[in-house]
Every structure is written in structure tokens, then in C-alpha cells.
Amino acid sequence: MFRRWNVLALPACIALLIAGDQAWRDKRVAEWNEEDARRVLDDSPWAKTVTPVTNRTNSGQRRNGGMGRGGGLGGIGIGIPGVGMGRRGGMGRGYPTDTGSGAAPVHTLTLRWESALPVREAELKARETNAPTVDDSHYAIAVYGVPGRMVSGGAQALSNDLKKEAAIKREGKKDLKPSSVEILQRDDGPVIIYSFPRSTEITPSDNKLEFRAQIGSLKFTQAFILDEMVFQGHLEL
């Protein structure tokens, strides 16, 4: 009987933990504390961690510290969600050397919908004074934790390469391509901002988005579920 009670109670315990993690959903923004804000920024429907893969065929790009021309996506590495991490993540160390063959895992990156209202509000609440500026006419996805050596070199050439290798994919619809990519150099590492025009509307009927990108030799894909990205009755992207 005791063992059966444990089995029955487990789903309820999991539900309570999930509810605790998303306590901010049941509050007005004005009622958020800093912990709520950090949760939105680091581990929420708008903020995900992803583990890219790197191919030895791109090892020359890693040594040279740039994107390189004509890199192409090749095979897309599917991102593996990791545990929650801080906003600036402490990345840039421990990346694999050019030994072995095939794909090798690397540390996690943080992806965030900078243009989403909950993220903008959470940045204010968390006193993120260096948060990227977002144009209201664009969706914006930011990538944090990229090693500086991956984005060294001419900014315009790098931006053009990053644009070519990025897309938001929706089932049955044409891919959304970024209209611009901005590389922000910060003391704690670069932040890459992908901007997509809102003139191509994303609606709840799209159900799921996949953001795919390649930065230097790092390739990743991350899914975002639109039903989970509703905040105070509105889809927020």
C-alpha cells in the first residue's frame, strides 16, 4: 500500500515542482521579484539552453577564429537542452580541440527571445542595464555564451555569414530568414542578435518553431512551443 501511494504521489510532486518553477506566470509583472525575473531570463519558454555540435571538417575555422566563407550548414546538429544557466554563462573555456573525428559536443549556449515582452520586463526587473536594444518591427533572438574567437574578424563579413546560416522553420511554411544579424562585443563575451521582420507574422497556429543556426563550426537547432509562449492571454515573441 505504501509503495502504491508513492507511485500515485509522484506525478503530483512533479506538478508542484513545475508550478513552483513558473510561479511568475500567476503574478503581474509589477509583483515579480528578482528570482522570478532570473527564471524568465534563464529557463522559461522564451529562454533555452542548447548544446551545439562541431564537426572536424570545420576545425580550420575554429583555429582561425572566424566564420570562413562558404561554410554551409552541412548536417544540422540537434540541440540538446541543458540545465538552466546564468545570463552570461561563463562560456569560452573547455571547447574541444581538433582531435578525433566526427562531431563533438561543446558547452551550452543560451538562446533568448529578446523581443518578447516577458523577457524585456524581466531584464528591467533584474537590472540588466546592458540588455540588447530591440526594434519593435522585428522578432529578435539572442545567443549568449559564444566564444569570442568564433566571432573575431570583420564584423560585416561575419554578420553576412551568420545571416546565411540561420532560419526560423515552421512546418508547411517558408523559412523565416534574418534581415540582420548584430554582433555585440561585451566584456563578458559576445552576444549575437538575429532579427526577423514581423511583416511575416508568426501565429499560434504555427504550433512550433525551430531556430537553426551555425556560428563558426558550432551548429544547433532549438524548438520553441508557441502554446507555452502565451503570457497574460497573448502570444509573446
Task: Explain the overall architecture.
There is one protein chain. With 237 residues, the chain is α+β, with helices and mostly antiparallel strands. It has one domain (28-235). Helix content is 23%, strand content 24%. It has five helices and twelve strands. The chain has a five-stranded antiparallel beta sheet. Strands 3-2-10-9-6 form a five-stranded antiparallel beta sheet. A two-stranded antiparallel ribbon has the order 11-12. It is globular, with a radius of gyration of 19 Å. The relative contact order is 0.18. Mean pLDDT is 75; it is low at 1-20 and 58-105.
Which SSEs are present, and which pair or pack?
Blueprint: H1 2-21, H2 34-42, E1 47-50, E2 53-55, H3 59-64, E3 103-105, E4 109-113, H4 117-125, E5 138-144, H5 155-164, E6 167-169, E7 180-184, E8 191-197, E9 208-215, E10 218-225, E11 230-231, E12 234-235
Antiparallel strand pairs: 1-4, 2-3, 2-10, 4-5, 5-8, 6-9, 7-8, 9-10, 11-12
Helix pairs in contact: 2-4
Question: Which properties best describe this structure?
Answer:
237 residues, alpha+beta, 5-stranded antiparallel sheet, 24% strand
Instruction: Please list the strands of the largest sheet in the order they lie side by side.
Output: 1-4-5-8-7
Low-confidence stretches: 1-20, 58-105
How many structural domains in the coordinates?
1
Largest sheet: 5 strands, antiparallel
Category by helix and strand content? alpha+beta
Note the total helix count: 5
- β-sheet strand percentage: 15-25%
Overall spatial form: globular
Mean pLDDT score: 75
Helix content: 10-25%
How far is it from the N-terminal to the C-terminal residue, by CA?
48 Å
Note the run of SSEs as H and E: HHEEHEEHEHEEEEEEE
Oligomerization category of the chains in this entry: single chain
Instruction: Tell how many strands the DSSP assignment holds.
Output: 12
Radius of gyration: 19 Å
